[in-house]
Amino acid sequence: ICRQTYYPCLDICFIQLQAAENEKVRWELEKTQLQQNIEENKERMLKLESYWIEAQTLCHTVNEHLKETQSQYQALEKKYNKAKKLIKDFQQKELDFIKRQEAERKKIEDLEKAHLVEVQGLQVRIRDLEAEVFRLLKQNGTQVNNNNNIFERRTSLGEVSKGDTMENLDVKQTSCQDGLSQGLFKLTAKMFFNDYKTQP
């Protein structure tokens, strides 16, 4: 009876021991799997960390490039604004130069017109003076001819005295010519004086 009772107990213990061994093996497998998973996760974490560091480095590089680009953009913007201002100033100076050139051209045209009017006026006065001189010369020539005729008649009639020599006649003709010259001078001076008073 004891044997029969003893063997089943051994079987139960053996079964429990086998189950414990199986459980131990399962736990060992799970432990190995967990360790493998931990190692894989560590590798992944290291890769992610390296990726993160690389991303940080890339971000830092991009930020540096962005700052440099912003600085270049600001410098280009300043140069653009300066060039724009220079172009505007140049255009304004060009407009001012064109205005001054137009004003000078108009001034020259006005001076040329005034000069032309003055020249035409002087030409008219010259013609008037020439006509007046011609008239005076003609009048003086007529008077000289009359004096000569009177002298010839008096000579033929014997009315010329001994004191009326040729020298005295030359003096009279010279006095007449001097009077003509003085008359011409006075006429010319009068016309130019009137012209001077009428000028602005």
From TrEMBL:
<dbReference type="GO" id="GO:0019722">
    <property type="term" value="P:calcium-mediated signaling"/>
</dbReference>
<dbReference type="GO" id="GO:0051015">
    <property type="term" value="F:actin filament binding"/>
</dbReference>
<keyword id="KW-0597">Phosphoprotein</keyword>
<keyword id="KW-0175">Coiled coil</keyword>
<dbReference type="GO" id="GO:0014069">
    <property type="term" value="C:postsynaptic density"/>
</dbReference>
<dbReference type="InterPro" id="IPR043446">
    <property type="entry name" value="Neurabin-like"/>
</dbReference>
<dbReference type="GO" id="GO:0031175">
    <property type="term" value="P:neuron projection development"/>
</dbReference>
<protein>
    <submittedName>
        <fullName>Protein phosphatase 1 regulatory subunit 9A</fullName>
    </submittedName>
</protein>
<dbReference type="GO" id="GO:0030425">
    <property type="term" value="C:dendrite"/>
</dbReference>
<feature type="coiled-coil region">
    <location>
        <begin position="17"/>
        <end position="93"/>
    </location>
</feature>
<dbReference type="GO" id="GO:0005737">
    <property type="term" value="C:cytoplasm"/>
</dbReference>
<dbReference type="GO" id="GO:0007015">
    <property type="term" value="P:actin filament organization"/>
</dbReference>
<dbReference type="GO" id="GO:0015629">
    <property type="term" value="C:actin cytoskeleton"/>
</dbReference>
